[in-house]
Write a structure and sequence with these properties.
The chain folds into two domains: 115 residues, Rossmann fold (3-Layer(aba) Sandwich); 183 residues, NAD(P)-binding Rossmann-like Domain (Rossmann fold, 3-Layer(aba) Sandwich). 34% of the residues lie in helices and 15% in strands.
Length: 315
């Protein structure tokens, strides 16, 4: 029976189901125990990770039998894909399983930032009445949502925001203008990122972190956005130059931002402002809900089990 090591948290029913088909070692704390993890991987046929476990050459060297990597999520920047390919190790992401959770996060933070009226709880509870200050928010109807990346999550976001009467445009170099996704989701294809930034009232990022997308949103590109626009990043932290973003917010060259992902996770204390009402910070949880965790975990458990049940045994 093939063996699998799970290094980060996974939904309990999915772990139990996988344990009926494979030999499972499950400890969500393994990500922080590198020596123990390397020892367990010596006999492992598969590993299941989230985003914190670095499946790099060093880890792979400690797993001579490894044949599959299950990713409880969709981002693959913590997995050395080239090294896996060299050893014919199959990487299995949970494509689409957390799309609804991320799309709802984008919707919620969009509403909060554009309306700008949800930071008054303490003031109202203390008898204050900041009505004039909070009466200058905006509606989404008629505004433009700009999607940078138009894969599964971007498409789900487009479906949600259109119910608020938003126009949607998308920039994605991987999808040609004639791709049917634009027609099916009634989204305008934008051939140029700079054009999208100049027109969008809300910009939401849905691209992977690669050498070409690192600091894609630098000071120059942030300056192309409307001063009334907001930026939402649920993709990967390195896509935005965080220093440039904070400067834009402080100088009111940008109306707001929501960051769920960061260049360094967790951010260093004091690295980001804690008291800026234009900024929403969350700890990489946009794709995490009870429902999405169950979907992601079940999908990976099923796919890992099927891989070993259906695969040809190694020579």
């Amino acid at each position: 029976m093939a063996s699998v090591v799970i290094t980060e948290f996974m939904d309990a029913p999915a772990v139990a189901a996988l344990s009926t088909q494979l030999t499972v070692t499950y400890d969500p704390g393994l990500v922080d125990q590198p020596e123990r993890l390397q020892g367990l991987l010596a006999e492992a046929d598969a590993i299941i990770v989230r985003n914190r476990t670095q499946v790099d050459r060093q880890l792979l060297a400690s797993a001579p039998r490894l044949r599959a990597v299950g990713r409880l999520g969709v981002g693959l920047d913590n997995i050395d894909m080239a090294a896996c390919a060299e050893r014919s190790i199959t990487v299995i992401p949970a494509t689409g399983a957390n799309a609804q959770a991320v799309a709802e996060y984008v919707m919620a933070t969009t509403l909060m930032l554009v309306r700008g009226a949800y930071h008054a709880t303490a003031a109202v509870a203390n008898g204050q009445w900041p009505r004039p200050v909070l009466s200058n928010g905006h509606e989404l109807h008629g505004k433009v949502m700009g999607l940078v990346g138009f894969g599964t999550i971007g498409r789900r976001v487009s479906d949600l925001v259109k119910s608020f009467g938003m126009q949607v445009m998308a920039f994605d170099p991987a999808l040609p203008a004639e791709h049917e996704a634009y027609r099916l989701h009634q989204v305008s294809h934008c051939p140029d990122l700079e054009l999208l930034l100049s027109k969008a009232d809300v910009v939401s990022l849905h691209v992977p972190l690669t050498p070409s997308t690192r600091h894609l949103f630098n000071a120059k590109r942030l300056a192309l956005m409307k001063s009334s626009a907001v930026l939402i990043n649920t993709a990967r932290g390195g896509i935005i130059d965080e220093h440039a973003l904070i400067q834009a917010l402080r100088e009111e060259r940008l109306a707001g931002a929501a960051l769920d992902v960061f260049d360094h996770e967790p951010p260093l204390a004091g690295q980001l402002p804690a008291d800026n009402p234009r900024l929403i910070l969350t700890p990489h949880i946009a794709g995490l809900t009870q429902e999405s965790n169950a979907r992601v975990s079940t999908m990976i458990a099923e796919r890992i089990a099927a891989f070993f049940i259906n695969a040809t045994p190694p020579a």
